[in-house]
């Protein structure tokens, strides 16, 4: 029986509870999990928390995502003797939230300092992105370079290092697994156009517009992650799916 969880990196608690239910047989191999919305209600947590927990379990091989069908128990989990708690890691949505808070402020400051040479660097980056949208690994490298280049405009070594380090935290098996469900040429093309809007605001030396453009970019990035792990994974009927997509 699912029960509400209390705060402490909630997605880890949710993963622990589902893992235990698989171990005891309450969730059997091949069984489909309840819809995301239902899980969130039963566990009294947000839907992003459910997504992060399920990604942990998918990386461990305990559940399997079947596009357009749902999430199923993939194998039996054996309860091990008590061990030290796993090394903590940040969830994908937690990282995106942190990036939004910091990088919006950086973009705002960069817009007040940008020179033509800075804009030339951003323009070159956009050209590179256009040539690699079909290659996720290359696109990731160019994407990282774009965000660190904006921090470079501020000429603060701490911010440059922080921007690079927080971006690199997405290079975990958990974030990569989540990204594998949505990243491709279309998503990178959208990201590139969002980058162009950020570039234009910074080039115009408009701090308000630059901050908003960065916020829009990171909000849309999170939305893409969220939608990729939404109800379509739980056998949503075609009518509801069409209605939801029409609202986007």
TrEMBL record:
Gene3D superfamilies, sorted: GntR ligand-binding domain-like, Winged helix-like DNA-binding domain superfamily/Winged helix DNA-binding domain
Domain HTH gntR-type: 8-76
PANTHER family (UniProt xref): TRANSCRIPTIONAL REGULATOR, GNTR FAMILY (PTHR43537), UXU OPERON TRANSCRIPTIONAL REGULATOR (PTHR43537:SF5)
Cited SMART domains: FCD, HTH_GNTR
Name of protein: GntR family transcriptional regulator
An MF annotation (GO) of this entry: DNA-binding transcription factor activity
UniProt entry keywords in alphabetical sequence: DNA-binding, Transcription, Transcription regulation
InterPro entries: GntR_C, TF_FadR/GntR_C, Tscrpt_reg_HTH_GntR, WH-like_DNA-bd_sf, WH_DNA-bd_sf
Lineage top rank: taxon: Bacteria
């Amino acid at each position: 029986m699912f029960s509400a969880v209390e705060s402490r990196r909630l997605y880890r608690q949710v993963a622990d509870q589902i893992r235990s239910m698989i171990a005891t047989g309450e969730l059997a191999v091949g069984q489909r999990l309840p819809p995301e919305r239902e899980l969130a209600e039963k566990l009294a947590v947000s839907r992003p928390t459910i997504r992060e927990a399920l990604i942990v379990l998918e990386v461990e091989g305990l559940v399997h995502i079947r596009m357009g069908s749902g999430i199923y128990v993939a194998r039996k989990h054996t309860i091990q003797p008590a061990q030290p708690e796993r090394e903590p890691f940040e969830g994908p949505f937690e990282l995106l939230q942190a990036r939004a808070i910091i990088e919006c402020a950086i973009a705002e400051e960069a817009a007040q300092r940008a020179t033509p040479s800075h804009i030339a660097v951003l323009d070159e980056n956009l050209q590179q992105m256009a040539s690699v949208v079909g290659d996720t690994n290359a696109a990731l490298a160019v994407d990282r370079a774009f965000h660190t280049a904006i921090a470079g405009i501020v000429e603060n070594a701490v911010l440059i290092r922080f921007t690079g380090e927080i971006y690199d935290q997405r290079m975990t098996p958990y974030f990569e697994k989540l990204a594998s469900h949505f990243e491709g040429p279309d998503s990178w093309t959208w990201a590139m156009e969002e980058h162009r809007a950020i570039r234009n605001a910074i080039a115009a030396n408009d701090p308000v517009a630059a901050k908003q453009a960065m916020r829009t970019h990171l909000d849309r990035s999170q939305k893409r992650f969220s939608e990729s792990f939404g109800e379509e994974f739980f056998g949503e009927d075609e009518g509801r799916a069409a209605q939801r997509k029409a609202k986007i």
